[in-house]
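pipeline/complex-builder :: batch 7 item 3
reading input block
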Amino acid sequence: MTIVPDVAPILFFDSGIGGLSVLKAVQAALPRAPIVFAADYAGLPYGTKTEDEISARVPALLGRWVERYQPRLVIIACNTACTIALSHVRAALNVPVVGTVPAIKPAAEATETGVIGLLGTAATIRQVYVDALHAAHARQFHLLRHAAPELVHAAEAKMRGEVVDPAIYAKAMAGLMDQPFGERLDVTVLGCTHFPLVEDELLVAAPHMRFVDGAAGIARRICHLTKDQSWPEKKADGIFVTTGEVSALGSLLPALFSLGITHIQSL
Ligand code: DGL
Protein backbone atom coordinates (compact mmCIF):
# COMPACT_ATOMS: atom_id res chain seq x y z
CA MET A 1 0.00 0.00 0.00
CA THR A 2 1.35 3.47 -0.93
CA ILE A 3 1.72 5.82 2.02
CA VAL A 4 0.24 9.22 1.14
CA PRO A 5 2.05 12.14 2.84
CA ASP A 6 -0.23 14.28 5.07
CA VAL A 7 0.64 17.35 3.06
CA ALA A 8 -0.26 15.85 -0.33
CA PRO A 9 -3.06 18.08 -1.66
CA ILE A 10 -6.27 17.41 -3.50
CA LEU A 11 -5.95 19.06 -6.92
CA PHE A 12 -9.15 20.57 -8.36
CA PHE A 13 -9.27 21.45 -12.03
CA ASP A 14 -11.65 23.59 -14.08
CA SER A 15 -11.48 26.01 -16.98
CA GLY A 16 -12.23 28.83 -14.51
CA ILE A 17 -13.88 29.48 -11.20
CA GLY A 18 -16.74 26.96 -11.61
CA GLY A 19 -14.91 24.19 -9.80
CA LEU A 20 -15.22 26.22 -6.59
CA SER A 21 -18.76 24.82 -6.33
CA VAL A 22 -17.18 21.35 -5.97
CA LEU A 23 -14.34 22.58 -3.78
CA LYS A 24 -16.84 24.05 -1.27
CA ALA A 25 -18.56 20.67 -0.83
CA VAL A 26 -15.24 18.83 -0.43
CA GLN A 27 -13.91 21.42 2.03
CA ALA A 28 -17.05 21.08 4.14
CA ALA A 29 -16.49 17.32 4.36
CA LEU A 30 -12.68 17.41 4.73
CA PRO A 31 -11.80 20.77 6.31
CA ARG A 32 -8.07 20.03 6.80
CA ALA A 33 -7.44 18.82 3.24
CA PRO A 34 -4.66 20.81 1.53
CA ILE A 35 -6.06 22.31 -1.67
CA VAL A 36 -4.66 23.27 -5.06
CA PHE A 37 -7.20 24.81 -7.44
CA ALA A 38 -6.01 24.83 -11.05
CA ALA A 39 -7.89 27.02 -13.53
CA ASP A 40 -7.22 27.04 -17.26
CA TYR A 41 -8.12 30.69 -17.79
CA ALA A 42 -6.06 30.76 -20.99
CA GLY A 43 -8.51 28.15 -22.32
CA LEU A 44 -11.83 29.46 -20.91
CA PRO A 45 -14.48 28.81 -22.14
CA TYR A 46 -14.28 25.07 -22.77
CA GLY A 47 -17.91 24.89 -23.85
CA THR A 48 -17.18 26.26 -27.33
CA LYS A 49 -14.14 24.05 -27.96
CA THR A 50 -14.07 20.88 -30.03
CA GLU A 51 -13.74 17.40 -28.60
CA ASP A 52 -10.23 17.14 -30.11
CA GLU A 53 -9.09 20.39 -28.52
CA ILE A 54 -10.29 19.36 -25.05
CA SER A 55 -8.95 15.80 -25.34
CA ALA A 56 -5.50 17.16 -26.18
CA ARG A 57 -5.43 20.11 -23.78
CA VAL A 58 -6.74 18.72 -20.49
CA PRO A 59 -4.46 15.67 -20.02
CA ALA A 60 -1.40 17.73 -21.01
CA LEU A 61 -2.15 20.47 -18.48
CA LEU A 62 -3.01 18.05 -15.72
CA GLY A 63 0.21 16.13 -16.35
CA ARG A 64 2.21 19.29 -15.64
CA TRP A 65 0.21 20.17 -12.54
CA VAL A 66 0.42 16.65 -11.11
CA GLU A 67 4.18 16.72 -11.56
CA ARG A 68 4.42 20.10 -9.83
CA TYR A 69 2.05 19.56 -6.88
CA GLN A 70 2.18 15.76 -6.36
CA PRO A 71 -1.53 15.56 -5.38
CA ARG A 72 -3.03 12.53 -3.63
CA LEU A 73 -5.90 12.74 -6.10
CA VAL A 74 -7.27 14.91 -8.86
CA ILE A 75 -10.85 16.13 -9.16
CA ILE A 76 -11.83 17.28 -12.63
CA ALA A 77 -14.40 19.82 -11.47
CA CYS A 78 -15.62 20.47 -15.00
CA ASN A 79 -18.42 18.60 -16.74
CA THR A 80 -17.19 19.59 -20.20
CA ALA A 81 -13.69 18.21 -19.63
CA CYS A 82 -15.04 15.05 -18.00
CA THR A 83 -17.71 14.08 -20.47
CA ILE A 84 -15.09 14.39 -23.24
CA ALA A 85 -11.71 13.56 -21.76
CA LEU A 86 -12.05 11.64 -18.48
CA SER A 87 -10.69 8.39 -19.92
CA HIS A 88 -7.77 10.22 -21.58
CA VAL A 89 -6.88 11.88 -18.28
CA ARG A 90 -7.08 8.62 -16.35
CA ALA A 91 -4.81 6.95 -18.91
CA ALA A 92 -2.28 9.80 -18.71
CA LEU A 93 -2.00 10.22 -14.91
CA ASN A 94 -0.74 7.90 -12.21
CA VAL A 95 -2.99 9.31 -9.46
CA PRO A 96 -6.69 8.61 -8.82
CA VAL A 97 -8.95 10.89 -10.87
CA VAL A 98 -12.51 11.71 -9.83
CA GLY A 99 -14.77 13.23 -12.45
CA THR A 100 -17.78 15.55 -12.44
CA VAL A 101 -20.57 14.52 -14.79
CA PRO A 102 -24.16 15.79 -15.04
CA ALA A 103 -26.20 14.60 -12.02
CA ILE A 104 -28.89 12.88 -14.09
CA LYS A 105 -29.24 9.97 -11.66
CA PRO A 106 -30.16 12.13 -8.63
CA ALA A 107 -32.45 14.18 -10.88
CA ALA A 108 -34.26 11.00 -11.97
CA GLU A 109 -34.74 10.10 -8.31
CA ALA A 110 -36.14 13.55 -7.53
CA THR A 111 -38.53 14.23 -10.42
CA GLU A 112 -42.25 13.89 -9.77
CA THR A 113 -43.39 14.84 -13.25
CA GLY A 114 -40.94 12.71 -15.28
CA VAL A 115 -39.47 15.73 -17.07
CA ILE A 116 -35.84 16.60 -16.26
CA GLY A 117 -33.84 19.54 -17.55
CA LEU A 118 -30.12 19.71 -18.24
CA LEU A 119 -28.32 23.04 -18.37
CA GLY A 120 -24.73 22.70 -19.54
CA THR A 121 -22.21 23.98 -22.02
CA ALA A 122 -22.78 23.38 -25.73
CA ALA A 123 -19.94 20.83 -25.70
CA THR A 124 -21.39 18.91 -22.73
CA ILE A 125 -25.00 18.61 -23.82
CA ARG A 126 -24.08 17.02 -27.17
CA GLN A 127 -21.91 14.25 -25.65
CA VAL A 128 -22.73 10.55 -25.98
CA TYR A 129 -21.70 10.41 -22.31
CA VAL A 130 -24.92 12.32 -21.58
CA ASP A 131 -26.93 9.95 -23.80
CA ALA A 132 -25.48 7.08 -21.77
CA LEU A 133 -26.38 8.71 -18.43
CA HIS A 134 -29.91 9.27 -19.71
CA ALA A 135 -30.22 5.66 -20.89
CA ALA A 136 -28.76 4.23 -17.67
CA HIS A 137 -30.63 6.31 -15.07
CA ALA A 138 -33.59 8.11 -16.62
CA ARG A 139 -34.62 6.14 -19.68
CA GLN A 140 -38.33 6.41 -18.82
CA PHE A 141 -38.17 10.22 -18.43
CA HIS A 142 -37.95 13.14 -20.83
CA LEU A 143 -34.55 14.85 -20.70
CA LEU A 144 -34.62 18.40 -22.06
CA ARG A 145 -31.18 19.87 -22.83
CA HIS A 146 -30.16 23.49 -23.20
CA ALA A 147 -26.73 25.08 -23.69
CA ALA A 148 -26.32 28.17 -21.51
CA PRO A 149 -22.79 29.51 -22.09
CA GLU A 150 -23.88 32.94 -20.84
CA LEU A 151 -24.20 31.44 -17.34
CA VAL A 152 -20.47 30.63 -17.35
CA HIS A 153 -19.74 34.32 -17.83
CA ALA A 154 -22.44 35.30 -15.33
CA ALA A 155 -20.88 33.07 -12.66
CA GLU A 156 -17.40 34.44 -13.38
CA ALA A 157 -18.78 37.99 -13.11
CA LYS A 158 -20.72 37.31 -9.90
CA MET A 159 -17.65 35.85 -8.21
CA ARG A 160 -15.81 39.06 -9.13
CA GLY A 161 -18.51 41.14 -7.44
CA GLU A 162 -19.92 42.45 -10.73
CA VAL A 163 -23.63 43.08 -11.33
CA VAL A 164 -25.26 40.65 -13.78
CA ASP A 165 -28.47 41.36 -15.70
CA PRO A 166 -31.18 39.03 -14.23
CA ALA A 167 -32.59 38.57 -17.77
CA ILE A 168 -29.66 36.20 -18.39
CA TYR A 169 -31.00 33.75 -15.82
CA ALA A 170 -34.56 34.00 -17.09
CA LYS A 171 -33.35 33.34 -20.64
CA ALA A 172 -31.43 30.24 -19.58
CA MET A 173 -34.47 28.78 -17.80
CA ALA A 174 -36.75 29.69 -20.71
CA GLY A 175 -34.40 27.70 -22.96
CA LEU A 176 -35.62 24.59 -21.11
CA MET A 177 -39.15 25.56 -20.13
CA ASP A 178 -40.14 26.67 -23.64
CA GLN A 179 -39.34 23.24 -25.12
CA PRO A 180 -42.04 20.60 -25.65
CA PHE A 181 -42.90 19.08 -22.21
CA GLY A 182 -41.15 22.08 -20.61
CA GLU A 183 -44.31 23.11 -18.76
CA ARG A 184 -43.94 19.92 -16.68
CA LEU A 185 -40.25 20.38 -15.91
CA ASP A 186 -39.66 20.10 -12.14
CA VAL A 187 -35.97 19.19 -11.71
CA THR A 188 -33.01 20.77 -13.51
CA VAL A 189 -29.48 19.39 -13.51
CA LEU A 190 -26.82 22.09 -13.25
CA GLY A 191 -24.47 20.25 -15.61
CA CYS A 192 -21.66 22.79 -15.57
CA THR A 193 -19.77 23.49 -12.35
CA HIS A 194 -20.13 27.24 -12.89
CA PHE A 195 -23.92 27.04 -12.60
CA PRO A 196 -24.36 26.17 -8.89
CA LEU A 197 -22.56 29.47 -8.22
CA VAL A 198 -25.64 31.23 -9.67
CA GLU A 199 -28.27 28.82 -8.36
CA ASP A 200 -29.97 31.48 -6.20
CA GLU A 201 -30.42 33.68 -9.27
CA LEU A 202 -31.78 30.77 -11.35
CA LEU A 203 -34.23 30.03 -8.56
CA VAL A 204 -35.55 33.57 -8.76
CA ALA A 205 -36.10 33.01 -12.51
CA ALA A 206 -37.86 29.64 -11.92
CA PRO A 207 -39.12 29.52 -8.30
CA HIS A 208 -40.83 26.12 -8.66
CA MET A 209 -37.67 24.39 -9.88
CA ARG A 210 -35.52 21.95 -7.94
CA PHE A 211 -31.85 22.16 -8.96
CA VAL A 212 -29.37 19.31 -8.55
CA ASP A 213 -25.63 19.07 -9.12
CA GLY A 214 -22.87 16.56 -8.49
CA ALA A 215 -20.88 18.31 -5.75
CA ALA A 216 -22.27 16.44 -2.72
CA GLY A 217 -21.77 13.08 -4.44
CA ILE A 218 -18.18 13.97 -5.27
CA ALA A 219 -17.49 14.98 -1.67
CA ARG A 220 -18.81 11.60 -0.48
CA ARG A 221 -16.63 9.81 -3.05
CA ILE A 222 -13.51 11.73 -1.96
CA CYS A 223 -14.19 10.89 1.70
CA HIS A 224 -14.44 7.23 0.74
CA LEU A 225 -11.26 7.25 -1.38
CA THR A 226 -9.23 8.97 1.36
CA LYS A 227 -10.73 7.20 4.38
CA ASP A 228 -7.43 5.47 5.30
CA GLN A 229 -5.32 8.58 4.67
CA SER A 230 -4.34 11.28 7.15
CA TRP A 231 -4.36 15.07 6.92
CA PRO A 232 -2.17 17.80 8.43
CA GLU A 233 -3.02 18.83 12.02
CA LYS A 234 -3.51 22.41 10.88
CA LYS A 235 -5.12 23.41 7.61
CA ALA A 236 -2.59 24.80 5.12
CA ASP A 237 -3.36 27.87 2.99
CA GLY A 238 -4.80 26.90 -0.38
CA ILE A 239 -3.08 27.50 -3.72
CA PHE A 240 -4.73 28.84 -6.90
CA VAL A 241 -2.80 28.25 -10.11
CA THR A 242 -3.83 29.67 -13.46
CA THR A 243 -2.74 29.34 -17.08
CA GLY A 244 -3.87 32.96 -17.55
CA GLU A 245 -2.60 36.30 -16.28
CA VAL A 246 -2.26 36.45 -12.49
CA SER A 247 -2.99 40.19 -12.72
CA ALA A 248 -6.47 39.39 -14.11
CA LEU A 249 -7.44 37.68 -10.85
CA GLY A 250 -7.53 40.78 -8.64
CA SER A 251 -11.29 41.02 -8.28
CA LEU A 252 -11.55 37.28 -7.52
CA LEU A 253 -9.27 37.47 -4.50
CA PRO A 254 -12.02 38.11 -1.88
CA ALA A 255 -13.91 35.01 -3.06
CA LEU A 256 -10.69 32.96 -3.00
CA PHE A 257 -9.64 34.24 0.43
CA SER A 258 -13.06 33.30 1.83
CA LEU A 259 -12.23 29.70 0.88
CA GLY A 260 -8.79 29.81 2.46
CA ILE A 261 -6.94 30.21 -0.85
CA THR A 262 -4.18 32.75 -0.37
CA HIS A 263 -1.37 31.76 -2.77
CA ILE A 264 -1.76 32.68 -6.43
CA GLN A 265 0.60 31.09 -8.94
CA SER A 266 0.86 30.75 -12.69
CA LEU A 267 1.68 27.64 -14.67
N1 DGL B 1 -17.15 24.70 -15.63
C1 DGL B 1 -17.13 23.98 -16.84
C2 DGL B 1 -18.09 22.80 -16.85
O1 DGL B 1 -18.39 22.27 -15.79
C3 DGL B 1 -17.04 24.65 -18.18
C4 DGL B 1 -17.19 26.09 -18.41
C5 DGL B 1 -16.56 26.51 -19.73
O2 DGL B 1 -15.33 26.65 -19.73
O3 DGL B 1 -17.26 26.63 -20.75
O4 DGL B 1 -18.55 22.36 -17.87
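note: The mean pLDDT is 97.
queue -> next item
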